[in-house]
Design brief:
The protein is α+β, with helices and mostly antiparallel strands and 111 residues long. The chain has a 5-stranded mixed beta sheet with strand order 1-2-5-7-6, covered by helices on one side. A two-stranded antiparallel sheet has the order 3-4. The longest helix is centred in the middle third of the chain and has 13 residues. It starts with a helix and ends in a 6-residue tail after the last strand.
């Protein structure tokens, strides 16, 4: 799985997807994809397994649209991408954010 192929899958599901950050003024809802860490498995000065963790930040207006969450979970489930979910409500910004964190064993190609 590449970052661009995941982006295409999300866009095919009608999500507005941005890499790294969304431009100022982007209308909700949208997704920002970020590489959050690369905790490779290493021992004895050798990297045995590459791992990439990617965060999909679903940004919505002040109210969660559970249909969007269902669609996003469906895309991830249908493509065998395990995820964890964290809800973050930012009342000062008047948005709801939900983090979908995905860990790719064997790394993910940045293509």
């Amino acid at each position: 799985m590449t970052i661009s192929s995941l982006k295409t899958l999300l866009e095919d599901a009608k999500f507005d997807v941005h890499l790294g950050s969304a431009p100022d003024g982007t209308a909700c809802p949208y997704i920002v994809m970020r590489d959050i860490e690369q905790p490779n498995f290493a021992a004895d000065n050798i990297t045995y397994t590459e791992t990439t963790s990617l965060r999909l930040d679903l940004v919505e207006s002040e109210v969660h649209n559970w249909s969007l969450h269902s669609t996003l979970k469906g895309v991830l489930d249908n493509n065998s991408l395990p995820y964890s979910v964290t809800f973050v409500d930012d009342t000062s910004e008047h948005v709801c954010e939900t983090y979908y964190d995905i860990r790719f064993q064997g790394g993910i190609l940045n293509g």
